Amino acid sequence: MKTEVDMPYRPTIHFTPTTGFMNDPNGLVFDGTQYHLYYQYNPFAPYAGHVHWGHATSPDLLHWTDQPIALDETGAGEAFTGCAVMDSHNASGLFRTPQGGMVALYTRASPHAQAQYLATSYDNGQTFEEYARNPVLDISSNSFRDPQVCFHKPTGRWVMVVAKSRLHQIAFYASIDLVHWVHLSDFGPSGLFGVDYECPNLIEVAVEGGGTRWMLFVSVNPGAPTGGSITQYFVGQFDGTRFIPDNTVIGLTDFAKDAYALQVYSNMPDAEAVSIAWLGNWQYAQELPTQSWRGAMTLPRTMVLRRDFTGGLRLAQTPRGLDTLRDTPLACPAGRLAAGESRQVSLPQGRAVELCMSVTVDERPHGLKLGDKGRTGRFIITFGNEGGEKLTIGFDAFSGQLWLDRSNLAGFAQPFFTGQFSTALAPDDRHFEIRIVLDACTLEIFADGGLAVGTALVFPASPLEFLRLEASGAGATIGSLNLYPLRKTMPR
Ligand code: FRU
């Protein structure tokens, strides 16, 4: 729907619902030909409630086609978060052919009860039929939700992770037919505590350089160090029964606050680990300054584990396939910027842009008095407009930290919509590499090859018209610099 005020905020390459309210991604599955994105959806109003499963399909995770609603709210409750898997050998016995089909497992939620339900699709995920003997898993709880299921090859059975939200635990179950589930173990409380544990995901992820580890993602809401909703992760081993973390480290998928309820794709060729998260935060999701629709998804992200400077394994996320959307880069020269110097280029209007750059800031000046830490060497990236609004991403070379500041944008204010975030990059490294995707009301930052990721909603009152690069306190050399307008190659 083209409501005038909403137009400038509607992303062009991120998935958004045409109307209504969207939160978590659900049922992320590759069916052998296309990718499915189901999502928590209120089709009636741009507020959370009356939750259905919305649906879109894509050949590449970037070009999405809207599909009819897949799961309705029923007398048994709303269709809360869940997953979809390909039951390709008809292990469930619920399909008429040996090739099986798609199975969705999700939570039916009423104010008094949350239990896990099953639905089958005989037409590749277009429509679902509810299993006659639902629920398939019910522990008489009203905080038991968000099942995610993966096939565990070594034990030859399906494994479900599901949140006992208020107990701050993730329960593990196993099944050979997706219908009958046996309790295996419970994980937690562990990591951030917060109010509710939600949307767990278990996946085996490749370690760069060889091998794999298991990752358990747990969304916490509210309770994030940055406020509100956050996705945390643990790295460890899954032995078919129990998840054993390697250590007590809690990873966060994001240093800002708008990437929640991360879910991983099921049935990916070559076991590629790909995720999509809801680009939002419950603290302000229902008050965003759009009127006909609310909610966006992150870009699809490839996930690997990488050893960082501490020797520990950390999640690295990069946007998947984005290079296929790149248009001719805009003229934007690399080279030297002396301390205090800046360079500015115009931004194309109404387009998503990707900025890729690598920068080395000059050494800290020699001959400083002992204890004098007063000098800074900062590289500042500003997306701004003539009205004085600016969105800033900056690198402080002498402390090896990155910041993001959305507080000088005037389109939205709310007590929880905090403006400034920061993260540590590799210390003692004056060099940084960054990819920034700015697409209307969405900003995604990937630094240090994806080890530091910041996802933020941004609401300028007027369009951002220019990009300014500035060296402050010390000179800097821009080794490489590319600014691409991004375009869809297929119509929606
Ligand atoms: C997470 C969540 C889930 C729940 C869904 C309801 O954002 O609260 O726990 O299933 O949203 O829409």
Describe the protein in words.
It is a single chain. The protein is mainly β. Helix content is 0%, strand content 49%. It contains no helices and 35 strands. It has strands at residues 20-30, 35-42, 52-58, 65-71, 78-87, 101-109, 114-121, 129-130, 137-141, 144-152, 157-164, 169-175, 182-187, 196-206, 212-221, 230-238, 243-245, 251-252, 260-264, 274-278, 293-294, 301-307, 313-319, 335-337, 342-346, 352-361, 378-384, 390-396, 401-408, 420-424, 431-439, 442-447, 452-457, 466-472, 476-486. Strands 24-35-26-31-32-33 form a six-stranded antiparallel β-sheet, with no helix packed on it. The structure holds beta-D-fructofuranose. Beta-D-fructofuranose binds next to β1, β5, β10 and β14.
